[in-house]
Amino acid sequence: MLEKIKALAKTYAPEFIAVRHHLHANPELSYQEYETSKFVQEKLHSLGIPFEVKATTGVVGLIHGKNPDSRVIALRADMDALPIREENDVPYKSKNDGVMHACGHDVHTTCLLGAAKILVELKDEWEGTVKLIFQPGEEKNPGGASLMIKDGVLENPAPQGILALHVHTGMEVGQFSFRGGQVMASADEIYITVKGKGGHAASPHLAVDPILIASHLIIALQQIISRNNNPFNPSVLSITSFNGGNTTNVIPNEVKLMGTFRAMNEDWRFKAHDLIRHTCTNLVSSMGGSCDLHIDVGYPCVYNNEALSAAAMQLAREFAGANNVSETELRMGAEDFGYYAQQIPACFYRLGTMNAARGITAGVHTPVFNIDENAIEAGMGMMAWLGSCVR
């Protein structure tokens, strides 16, 4: 079975590199993946895979092997692109100005389509059912995964586990990484308006300076992490925007702050929200001002089921060789795959796409992101292998 999957991945790689080129050239933003969804549906139809549409642009297909009720495993790919203007000079450069597959979702979708073709061809040689999940909106709250779950993607049939890959631009092509337990952080957006009383900059005693108050607040918010969080529990609070005033001699009425809060522990996450609220209210009030605070609760932590991840990692060693499989590093980035992981055993793993010798090293979310396309063969083969036999 393993050798057959490898052989088919090699045979079909050129076909699916062309699929990746099509997807890369025609990116669509979160929740606008209408043409991408149609393309995926057409591919599944051509393979004889029954499917249904969920959450408007999501697509869910089923492949039945032998004894289809014996196990159900879900494989997930995301389809949306980012609002970035591509700077690569390649034949498959984005045709949609200001929109680019800069996070590799074109690769993810391609690998799942390729795995589907392999699994269909070998369906008499593996047991169970594989559920294919092509989801919208990974890049934007509330997260397409949450919408797919609300629309019943984890039902009829209910998977015993779910796996997904993500490109890794710091790992050489042909390599994979896995990790059990904590993998990625939750992500919440913070919006604060500090309100004071404006006035002449030469008479600060007659004003309530929101710039001074906001400056103290930023320092105080950092102390939430440094003095309330266990130092062995990764967490980040970053204020990334300070907007107030527009000239040298006027104290403004208000200052707007924005930032992000990341955590690896859900209990600490919501305790920190309370501390942020308490700090904002009390500190600003003590300095004579008032504030409005909004915490936009985003994606949860990604927590990989230890048993499923260990099984997948061992299978990956069989597929790629032990030297090409490593442990994924912790990341404070976020992924809406965390919603699936809250519901069923999950495994989120990494696919190497870098080729340092060829200068393919640009990171995701940059206008020059690209991959060594040998990753397509590796990615679709690994997905088919894991989908066919992981338990």
Structure description:
The chain has 391 residues and is α/β, with parallel strands linked by helices. It has two domains: 2-184 and 301-389, 3-Layer(aba) Sandwich (Aminopeptidase); 186-296, Alpha-Beta Plaits (2-Layer Sandwich), CATH 3.30.70.360. Helix content is 36%, strand content 25%. The protein has nine helices and 16 strands. The strands form four sheets. It has an eight-stranded mixed β-sheet with strand order 1-2-4-3-5-16-6-15, with helices on both faces. A four-stranded antiparallel β-sheet has the order 10-12-8-13, covered by helices on one side. A hairpin with a 3-residue loop joins strand 1 (51-54) and strand 2. Helix 7 (306-320) crosses helix 9. The longest helix has 24 residues, at 2-25.
